[in-house]
C-alpha cells in the first residue's frame, strides 16, 4: 500500500487475519502504518524508484491516498504491476475536473461546474449560475484544504483567483449546493467484477473535515438508500474501479442527491464498518484488490456512530494513556482506535465507534468519548467521582 497513514495502519490490521503482510511505502518509520508492519519501504509517493521497490514481489499495489502522480503510475502499469485501482480509474479521485466531466457525461447528478484559467471566468460563472460559488483546487486538496466559498465576483475574489493561478494551482468552480446534509456511499469492486455496497451513511463535516458518521443515515428511506447504492455501484463499474470506493454526496431538500467527490481507498466515512458491519472496509479492500470473493456488508447493529478524535487546540496536560483509561472506565462498549500520531490541532489522531439501537444515545456516547480523548474534558460535565465528591468551588 502506498502511504503510511491511519488507513494503511488499519488495512495492515485487517490483513493479519488473512495471513497477509502489508508492505507500506511510508515517509518515516514513525508513520502510523510503519509502526505496525515489519515490511516498510521508506520513500515519497512521487518517486518511481521507491514505487518499483514497493511493488517487487507484491500480489497487488494499492493506495491509502491519491497522491501518486499519473506520470509515476504510467510506467508501473506498463511494466505489468497490478495497480488496484488502475491509473485510469484513480484519476477520477485525483482530479476533480476530470471526475466532474466524466460523471456529467454519464448523466449523473453533479453541480454546475467549469474549469478556470482566468479570474474573470469565476465572475462570469457566478453571474450565470448564481452566487455563492465554490472554487476548488482541481488536484491535491483534502479535508477542505483547497476549497473556497465565494460570495460575489468582487475584487477579493479576483485577487484570490489570480494569486492561486499565479502559484500554479489548477482551478475549477462549481455552484454551491443548497444541501440539507452530506451522505456517503461506500462500495467495493473486485477485478472479477463482483461489487458490494454498505448502507448509506450520514457524515457531519466541521471546518471542511469529517467529524462524525452515522450508519445508516437517519431517516433515509429504503428506496432512496437503494438508489444511492446503485449509483455508487454504477460509478465503480463505469470507471473500472478495483478496491474500495466512496462516493461523497450532498442531499438536497427535494430528497435528491448530487455527487461531491470520489475516493478510491478505504475512507473515514467507513471506519464504523470495523465493528459495525460483518466485513470491515479494510478487510473488504484487501479482498477486492486480491480478487477474493467479497464479504457481507450487512450491519451488525441497528445504529453505529463513529466520531473522530481531532487534535485539540491545546494539547491537554493529561496523558493520552490516562485519558484512554478514563474513557474505557466510563464507556466499556466504546471501540477506540488511536493512530499513534501527535495531537496537532484538528488533526485526525483516532476515532471512536459505538453501536446500539437508540441513535441519539449512541451518538452522544461516541461524541463524548471522542471529545474526551481529544481534550480531556467531559462536555456534559460528568465527573468520574460523582457529584458528591466534587469540590463545590469548581462550580463557582
Ligand atoms: P476535499 O477534497 O478537501 O475533501 P471537498 O470537495 O470534499 O474537498 O469539499 C469539502 C467540503 O466543502 C465538503 O464536504 C462540503 O461540506 C463543502 N463543499 C464542497 N463543495 C461544495 C458545493 N459545491 N456546495 C456546497 N458545499 C460544498
SSE run = HEEHHHHEHEEHEEEEEHEEHHEHEEH
Radius of gyration from CA coordinates = 22 Å
Mean pLDDT: 95
Tally of individual domains: 4
- Helix share, percent: 25-40%
**CATH architectural category of the largest domain:** 2-Layer Sandwich
> In terms of per-residue confidence, which ranges show pLDDT below 50 for 5 or more consecutive residues?
none
The CATH class of the largest domain, by name, is Alpha Beta
The CATH superfamily of the largest domain turns out to be ATP-grasp fold, B domain
Shape: globular
CATH topology of the largest domain: D-amino Acid Aminotransferase, Chain A, domain 1
Indicate the proportion of strand residues: 15-25%
Number of strands: 15
Largest sheet: 9 strands, antiparallel
Distance separating the two termini? 53 Å
What keywords describe this structure?
4 domains, 396 residues, alpha+beta, four-stranded antiparallel sheet, Rossmann fold, Dna Ligase, domain 1, 12 helices, D-amino Acid Aminotransferase, Chain A, domain 1, nine-stranded antiparallel sheet, 15 strands, binds adenosine-5'-diphosphate, globular, single chain
